[in-house]
Specification:
Blueprint lengths: L6 H9 L6 H12 L5 H14 L3 H12 L15 E5 L7 H10 L5 E5 L9 H5 L11 H11 L1 E5 L6 H11 L7 H14 L4 E8 L8 H17 L3 E8 L7 E2 L1 H12 L5 H17 L6 H13 L2 H12 L5 H4 L9 E6 L4 E6 L1 H11 L15 E4 L6 E2 L4 E7 L5 H9 L1 E4 L9 E5 L1
Parallel strand pairs: 1-4, 2-3, 4-5
Antiparallel strand pairs: 5-13, 6-9, 7-11, 8-10, 8-12, 9-11
The structure holds uracil.
Length: 437
């Protein structure tokens, strides 16, 4: 980078829609992470990207620079292709809990870094902490040994993974620049790359409970991430899936663990079963165990049927210090004091659900956090008895609240009004919209 180039020149260039040089993007990330560029200039740059976008090359360089801004996990001492998975997030999405054991049961190593959640329910780490005593903090050697022994380990994110993304994300959050495809794509992909992924399966959600509200935006985001993956030599596949209603029947940490275990036994609800098999099959293909998606699906269905996936879940929970007995005896998982029905005040077919509102209702019960300091109550959440396309009589239960407080009238109201009805029969939305290779 020439000493003469200044941040203001980079901002102006992007503002005018010109393509940045690799050296300019790398310089920006390095200097901003190092605290040598003020937030007001970084904010102006982000706004310019928001309006002018980025080329595929720019987004790939941004991703690679952000991945290199802090620690990068070296997983080379784990044998096999390390396939990571990422979901852009939704309500009731417990697929990581399911995919880990499914894929590890095929002897594909799963070395997963996961976060705590902000919002409707906890992240994967919070869900796992439903198992009392389960550890998610490991040094690098312990983590690698766990994966080599059990083929599956899940760890909390290391302190210094992608510091550039942490700083930029916080700035985007307060400058109205979160919703930019190249910025989201580079943020997500930089974390996967720093976490040591050889290959990546993405679940990009669209709908009333997702970041992306429609298929067009979800497709653009999926394509941007797949292109970044390819540019950086990581085989990447994205499945675009529906989030117009919560996934499965449960929202809340222990409740989602229970549903995940039932799915591993082959007894899960149809939507979670299907999405898990589809995503796990892609992981099996990228991990080199299956020649194609169809073979991957057969192998995954087999480990559900023959008990290997469930055995892998038990081994994984035990390996991280949790009690594997809870996997067999789900009634021992934390349970809320009250189960309160939300009855319908209308009759008809469920036509739509305000999925984000259901997520917020679960958070109010204590299943999620408003701030990172909030404590999660693992036992609480929402059980959905009706979903899109179901017929409901007036007075019939729509959902049950699992609560540790008796008076939850506000939450009852939120859940009730999250359901919209029609008189005509309606089909549920298709679960998978498209797959981007
Ligand atoms: N999730 C991320 O990790 N980054 C974004 O920018 C948006 C969602």
């Amino acid at each position: 980078m020439q000493a003469a180039v200044r941040m203001v020149d980079i901002i102006t260039k992007k503002r005018d829609g010109e393509e940045l040089e690799e050296s300019e993007v790398r310089w920006f990330i390095q200097e901003y992470t190092g605290g040598r560029i003020p937030d007001y200039q970084a904010a102006a740059f982000l706004m310019a990207v928001y309006f002018k976008g980025m080329t595929q090359d720019e987004a790939a360089v941004l991703t690679s620079a952000m991945a290199a801004s802090g620690d990068c996990l070296d997983l080379s001492s784990i044998q096999g292709v390390k396939v990571d998975k990422h979901s852009t997030g939704g309500v009731g999405d417990k697929t990581t809990l399911i995919l880990g054991p499914l894929v590890a049961a095929l002897d594909i190593p799963v070395a997963k870094m996961s976060g705590r959640g902000l919002g409707h329910t906890g992240g994967t780490i919070d869900k796992l902490e439903t198992f009392a005593g389960l550890r998610t903090e490991f040094n690098h050697q312990e983590f690698v040994e766990l994966v080599n022994r059990n083929k599956l380990a899940v760890a909390g994110q290391s302190g210094n993974l992608t510091p550039a993304d942490k700083k930029l994300y916080a700035l985007r959050d307060v400058t109205g620049t979160v919703n930019s495809i190249p910025l989201i794509a580079s943020s997500v992909m930089s974390k996967k790359i720093a976490a040591g992924a050889d290959a990546i399966v993405l679940d990009v959600k669209y709908g009333s409970g997702a970041f992306m509200k429609d298929t067009a935006d979800a497709k653009q985001l999926a394509e941007a991430m797949v292109e970044i993956g390819c540019s950086l030599d990581r085989h990447t596949v994205a499945v675009i899936s529906n989030m117009d209603q919560p996934l499965g029947s449960f929202v809340g940490n222990a409740l989602e663990v229970k549903e995940a275990v039932e799915t591993l036994r082959g007894e899960g609800p149809a939507d979670i079963h299907e999405l898990s098999v589809e995503l796990a099959a892609h992981m099996a293909v990228l991990g080199g165990r299956a020649a194609d998606q169809q073979e991957g699906r057969c192998l995954i269905e087999e480990v559900m049927k023959n008990g290997k996936a469930l055995a892998k879940m038990k081994q994984f929970i035990e390996g991280q210090g949790g009690d594997p007995k809870l996997v067999e005896q789900l009634e021992l998982l934390p349970k809320a004091a009250y189960e309160i029905e939300v009855t319908s005040t209308s009759a008809g077919y469920v036509k739509a659900m305000h999925t984000a509102a259901i997520g917020r209702a679960a958070m109010v019960l204590g299943a999620g956090r408003r701030t990172l300091e909030d404590r999660i109550d693992h036992s609480v959440g929402i059980e959905l008895h009706k979903k899109i396309g179901d017929y409901v009589e007036e007075g019939e239960p729509l959902a049950s609240l699992h609560s540790n407080e008796a008076d939850v009238s506000e939450v009852i109201n939120t859940v009730r009004t999250a359901y919209l009805f029609t008189d005509t029969k309606i089909a549920p939305p298709p679960l998978i919209f498209a797959t981007i290779h």
